[in-house]
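Task card 7
Instruction: Convert sequence to structure tokens.
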Amino acid sequence: MTDPVTASLPGPAVPVCSAKGCREAAVWVLAWNNPKLHTPERRKTWLACEEHREHLSRFLGTRGFLKDVVTLAEWEGGGGREGGEEPQGSATDR
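Output:
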């Protein structure tokens, strides 16, 4: 029996915005780290649509966590992955 929660959906996966409740396609990658928890080279990522890029950037920036904001295309091309991770996570995972 296939588990409906973990079963793959048909078609290619489309990265979505990390803002709470948003299901829009992601356009931006916000690379960040919490210096109290992560080594300086570690990069966690949130994804953002056009509408939520500023809000999520402000949230991370206010806390001193934001390290870089690049387009998803640039990130996937290798432009922002030094010491980092695949783009993932949610702004609700604070």
